[in-house]
Amino acid sequence: MVDRGLSARLHAKTQAAQWHVxxxxxxxxxxxxxxxxxxxxxPSRSQLxxxxxxxxxxxxxxxxxxxxxxxxxxxxxxxTYRPQLYxxxxxxxxxxxARELVDGLYGDLFGMRTDATERQSLFRYFxxxxxxxxxxxxxLSQRLVDRVRERRxxxxxxxxxxxxxxxxxxxxxVPERSRFVRLMHEALLVVLGALAAADRLRLGCYxxxxxxxxxxxxxIGEHEATVSRQLSRTRxxxxxxxxxxxxxxxxxxxxxxxxxxxxxxxxxxxLDLRVLLADVGQEAAMPEAAETPARKKxxxxxxxxxxxx
Length: 309
Hints:
The protein is mostly helical. The chain has two domains: about 5-150, no CATH class; about 165-305, no CATH class. It contains 16 helices and two strands. Strands 1-2 form a two-stranded antiparallel sheet. α8 crosses α12. The N and C termini lie far apart (about 55 Å).
């Protein structure tokens, strides 16, 4: 659809070369954007050129580089947009809980390879019609809305029963909830135990020790975008593994599995990630990185705050 000459001129106007984005890749991105805009239409050459020329081409080139996993593109993206995303998250949720959505978003933006040639990245859905910053805020906002809706789905339906009846029913449900929490504890131990030591180490650093992605990256020698991507992948693997364990080992139905997860929202009981990771051998994974200079620096910094590693 896009003329090669036009694509070459637009490619030359951007920083595509800096992010190692080839003309073919950039042309494909332009065509996806045009197909989205002119779906079912046959635009004239002038209409097409006018539309493409008005796109946020530098942002589109950066998105192409990040989608392909280019290190320079990712370094620029994280440095430039992470502070903006954190500020947007804090504005959307003043409790600070939305920051976890930002960290999870990095993994989806980086993408996962489904075969030997193609990387599935959320950046494929950025078409350059708005600025990259505006698009990222919209994606983050939608994820926050989705999370709120999911939590509301788990909230109990208001009841017209008397307070005494509600109290009696709640008391009767305590043993069942305790069983669900116990089953979740067992399933998490099994799933965490099956994880690679590096995955458990990232989880422990991020959730138990409250370390930042950058600190974890320095500790284990990974780029913070890689840390975020691996954490996202691990979270998905844990949830899938827990559901599979509950379904196959305990023969629970889908509704019962949902009740198990909901039980943790009501009362997590003894579920402490620090303890769980220690139970499945997290301590054994720590000495491997214990003597690195980066780790010593992180430990020193955190010891001032009364946090041990």
